[in-house]
Amino acid sequence: MEINAIDQPLKAVVLGASSDIGNALCIDWVARDWKVWGTYRTISPSVERLKGKLQGILQCPLDNAGAIEKACETLGREAKGWDVVVFGPGLQEPIGLFESCNFDEWAHSITVNFTNQLRFLRGILPSRNLQQSSRGPTVIFFAGGGVNNAPILYSAYTVSKVAMVKMVELLAAEIPDTKFVIIGPGWVKTKIHNSVLAAKENAGSSYERTVEKFKNDEFVPMSKVIDCCNAMIEGDKSALTGRNISVEFDRWNESQFTNLLSENPALYKLRRFGNDL
Question: 0.85 exceeded by the pTM?
Answer without folding.
Answer: yes
